[in-house]
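During the reporting period, our protein records have gained a structure token line. One record among many is quoted in full directly below:
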Amino acid sequence: MELLKITIMEYKISKRNQISVLQGQIIFTVLILITICLFGFYQGFSVFLFKFFGIFYLINLGIVLFLHIQYYIEDKNKSIIISLEEKQLIYKHKNLEKIIDFNEIQDVEMHMAPSFYVKNAFRVPFDKYHYAVIFLKSNERIIITCLMSKNVKDIFKYINIDIIRIRRFFPYIN
């Protein structure tokens, strides 16, 4: 029996990846609701309680929505195909298709929250949001966000290139 070898991988926005990055916000929402109910049940519902948790929740929700919408707009109608046999990355965006040889890639920067690769670190709902910028030798750049791949770093494990980690508390695309 011959072993099948995966030679082509395609990355694009998926509902699974969107739910994965929103998971922190979903858990945060449930925890806030449980906390408010417990405090309300044992201490009595108060305006201060709703203001305190409400403001904290709305700030986090605003950041998550901002990042999610920004990432979605960036990756909408975009796909990345990696062909290991040809050693090429095929970038598709709307009607544009660009074939990039692996040796045309100059650098890759990963922009992520400081706690992204640290286990047991303090987490906020937007910690899972991260993206990579591929710099080509032709001075072009391609951005890939976590809505295309749960862990963007995995896209580059087949390409022999060093990844520069840039840790940012708020990883918005600039």
